[in-house]
Amino acid sequence: MIIALGSKNKAKLKAVEDTIEDLGMKASFISIESPSGVSSQPFSDEETMEGAANRANFCLQQMNEAEIAIGLEGGVIETPFGLFLCNWGALAERGKETLFAGGARIKLPEEIAERLRAGEELGPVMDDYSESQGINHKEGAIGVFTHGLVDRATMFSHIVKLLIGQYEKRKGSSS
Ligand SMILES: O=P(O)(O)OP(=O)(O)OP(=O)(O)OC[C@H]1O[C@@H](n2cnc3c(O)ncnc32)[C@H](O)[C@@H]1O
User: Fold this and answer.
1) Could you tell me which residue ranges the Non-canonical purine NTP phosphatase/PRRC1 domain spans (predicted)?
2) pTM of the model
3) What is the CATH number of the domain that holds 36?
4) Which parts of the chain fold into alpha helices (H)?
5) Cα of 155 to ligand 1 centre, how many Å?
6) What is the ipTM of this complex?
7) Among 72, 120, 136, 146, which residue has the most ligand 1 atoms within 8 Å of its CB, making it the best to mutate?
8) Per the structure, how many domains does the chain have?
9) pLDDT per residue over 4-16, tens digit each?
10) pLDDT grade for 173, boundaries at 50, 70 and 90
């Protein structure tokens, strides 16, 4: 079985690799850059979900050899308690309804939230905050603000498991 991923982001690649290994799946995976079709900093669950679904569907269209394609998208969501990280995954399969799964959420510190509300993107803001480069490919904001206990790859691997689990359940139900 071939699984396609609609991104070249290292944390997302690791999440899919780790999941295939953890689940002992007989699967190989390929990845291509896929457009999200939403703003570069999604600001709601709906926009983040749409980005994930667009990436998965684009990827499946481009990759004929793939049975399923996964799109993973990061965003933020405004709540009465502050601005929270939100992450979504979508799994596309030919002729079937797209499956969705959401990831863990944590509140962003107000100094980060204010910069996002003013129009900046989380990736560069996190690099600036951490005095590092490419945090979105490494531990991510979730890793930085959980003292490394849950990094971006771990958070996304949970989403990928939720997607593969729903896919397997659907496959089992229809056979
Ligand atoms: O290559 P792609 O797949 O586009 O990965 P990305 O990290 O650049 O893009 P996302 O669509 O996942 O995230 C949207 C924006 O939010 C940033 N972002 C999201 N989650 C983040 C996190 O946990 N840490 C740092 N930046 C994050 C990211 O860098 C983008 O600027």
Assistant:
1) 6-161
2) 0.96
3) 3.90.950.10
4) 10-22, 45-62, 110-117, 122-130, 140-145, 152-174
5) 13
6) 0.94
7) 136
8) 1
9) 999 999 999 999 9
10) confident
